Fold this sequence. Notes:
This protein is about 0% helix and about 50% strand. The chain has no helices and 11 strands. It has strands at about 5-10, 10-15, 20-25, 35-40, 45-50, 60, 70-75, 80-85, 90-100, 115, 120-125. Strands 2, 4, 5, 6, 9, 10 and 11 form a 7-stranded mixed beta sheet that branches. It is globular, with a radius of gyration of 13 Å.
Amino acid sequence: QVQLVESGGGLVQAGGSTRLSCTVSGLAFDDYAMGWFRQAPGEERMGVSCIQWSGRSKYYAYAVKDRFTISRDNAKNTVYLQMNSLRPEDTAIYYCAANRYPDCGSVWGDAVRYAYWGQGSQVTVSS
């Protein structure tokens, strides 16, 4: 049984930082790219970032580029999302997801490329 367990997030002041973690079990973690998505109330789920199986290639949504950093530790089956310079508009539920492929691909932000999902972690940024 594949499980993606997220941790981190919570309430953060604008300009602050937080880190999300996602630990994966039941899957050959280093065979797959991993992604982070977010969904704000009343909005569609949006791709935030993706990291290739080896960690060499990383992709970011324009809205978070230069503020968020994705990383992975294949020895720990864990992917991270470091979020800096947070803004109120970053408030959302954040989901990690296991891609169906080793590479992110040009349409890495398309949710259909992802086979497994975490339970979601709330990040609330206060102004």
